[in-house]
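Q: I'm writing a short explainer about Methyl-accepting transducer domain-containing protein for a general audience and would like to include a description of its predicted shape. Could you first generate the structure from this sequence?
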Amino acid sequence: MQYVRAGSHVRESDAPRQPFDESAFRRFLYESRVVADRLVAVVEEVDRAAVGLTDIADRSAAQEKELEVGGRSAVEWIDKAFACLRQLAAAAEQIRRSSERMLAESDAAKATVVEVCRSLVETDRVMQRLESDNETMRERIRAFVGHALQIEQMNAFIREVVAQTTLLSLNAAIEAAHAGEAGRGFAVVAQEIKKLAEQSHGAVERSSRIVASIQKGVEDVLRAVEEERKAVRLSLDEMNAMKDRLDDIFRKTLRLHDEVTAVTDASLRQTELASVSADQLKAAVEVVENNLRNVAAALERMEEQRRQTGALRRVSENLKRTAEELTGALRSFGEDDLDGRHRYDRDDLMRLAAELSGTAELAAMDGRVHERVLTAFMEAHAEIEAVWSNRDDGTFVFSRPPAGLVNARGRHWWIRAMEGETYVSPVYVSAITKRPCVTVSAPIRDETGAVVGVVGFDLKAEDV
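A: Of course. Here's the predicted structure. Afterward I'll give you a sentence or two in plain language.
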């Protein structure tokens, strides 16, 4: 039937009639069925994708919420750690100040010990000199005692001389008395000699007493010097012991000084590290807070995505319902004609499917292997007009001619084969050739018997 533009003077009844082309109508009908089937398949894929997106959005939102809760907990813990770190930094600063004071006091103690050591060294030198002077004094006193002994010996000799002189003067007086008047002058001389002798004897006695007194004093001095020498020696020994103790104190002071210096340096480094760590924690808090803001924004986007996905699912449902209505309307044309005109031997098709699916090489699910095996199988059977294979997720490994579907998960032949059955379909319009066909599918099994994929082929309905 031909129509003209509105307003034309030519009536519908006046238009030339075209003869009805049943073949063209049937092709149109077949292609419309294919388009409707493809539309249904696409709608099913969109619906599954929407369901998957919704599930992903739900899981992502749940994870984002968990991440948000964890992030807030992390911020709280980081804040607590930051507060502890500030306290640690304050304690480290206090330790550093105490260490610096200890270091200053250690320096002062070290200087004091050094000064005491110097004083002890000087005192030791003085005591050594005192001991030397004491020994010199002892030697001189001993020499003086020797001289006093010599004086005493001389006094003894003088006493003997005085005794002899006295004796001689006595003899002279006796002889002068015998001489009478002639010896008077001699008697006077003898008398004077006696007086001199007596005076000499008195002087010698006094000298002896003085020498004895000096000897006694010298002996007292010697004893005092000896006591002083012992005291000096004792002082020297004590000084040496004190020097040893001070040396030990000095060594310990040096070690303490080194340790205090190390503690001061460590406290300074600790303060610096605490400051750096505080800055890093502060930066971490900022990063976590920024992440929380991003998570909140992501949650908003997830919610928006969920709303958009819901809208997409509603559109998909409407489109699916429309496609199913279209498919049902199209199938009402010539459905009985397809089933009535074509017959096939089911057992032959089952054997043909077993021959193909039993090829061990297919279990590797390698595209090049599938291309080689399936192409050879198709060329060996002229009645086959399409051959393909699918993975266990519905995607195509190989298809000749190229598949008219993106994914076969919604197809009955794929579902039945994945369940382990060999499936033979009724006659329908092929999505690849757009002509009536019969689809045969079978499971691909690995060496354990597990189904790892599907292999199938279409046969021309007229040749079955």
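A: For your explainer, you could say: The chain has six helices and six strands.
Q: Perfect, that's easy to follow.
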